[in-house]
Design a protein that fits this description.
The chain is α+β, with helices and mostly antiparallel strands and about 150 residues long. Helix content is about 40%, strand content about 20%. The mean pLDDT is about 90.
């Protein structure tokens, strides 16, 4: 799946996040069966919330998610939703995982999340933003507004 422009009434966005969650105690609990359940649950999450999974990768003790969402969902809300919904379903559908993890939690408390640019790196975007207003017309308009006390 590839990111798309999400059109809302008052905004258009392409917000991408790389989320990494580790299993509680960094236990090696990821298996083909857990991977299958995670992928199915993520499809269910997409149907219920505006959280879209572009890629999912599972390693022995952690999972990576490339997620697209909307501005009304904070990164924290996205993480809480993904972790809580997936954990419940993994425990329900792969009960042997619960035996390897005590305390009733699938994911560890921490996580890594990073924004992902669709069109460029931080340096490319910084240079683009810095160049804004270099045109003569912009400076003349800006100066005229300053002279009128609009800024």
């Amino acid at each position: 799946m590839e990111s798309q422009y999400i059109h809302k009434e008052h905004n258009v966005s392409v917000l991408l996040y790389h989320l990494v969650c580790s299993a509680k105690y960094r236990r090696v609990v990821m298996s083909e069966e857990v991977d299958k359940v995670l992928r199915e649950v993520c499809l269910d999450i997409e149907k219920r919330w505006e959280i879209f999974f572009l890629e999912i990768g599972v390693d022995r003790d952690h999972a990576h998610f490339l997620i697209q969402s909307v501005p009304t969902y904070s990164p924290t809300k996205i993480v809480q939703t993904v972790k809580s919904v997936t954990a419940k379903r993994v425990f329900l559908e792969v009960p042997e995982v619960k035996k390897k993890l005590w305390g009733g939690e699938f994911w560890g408390k921490g996580y890594f999340i990073n924004t992902v640019g669709r069109y460029g790196s931080e340096q490319v975007i910084a240079a683009y933003v810095k160049r804004q207003g270099e045109g003569r017309e912009y400076r003349q308009i800006h100066k005229a507004q300053m002279d009128l006390g609009l800024f």
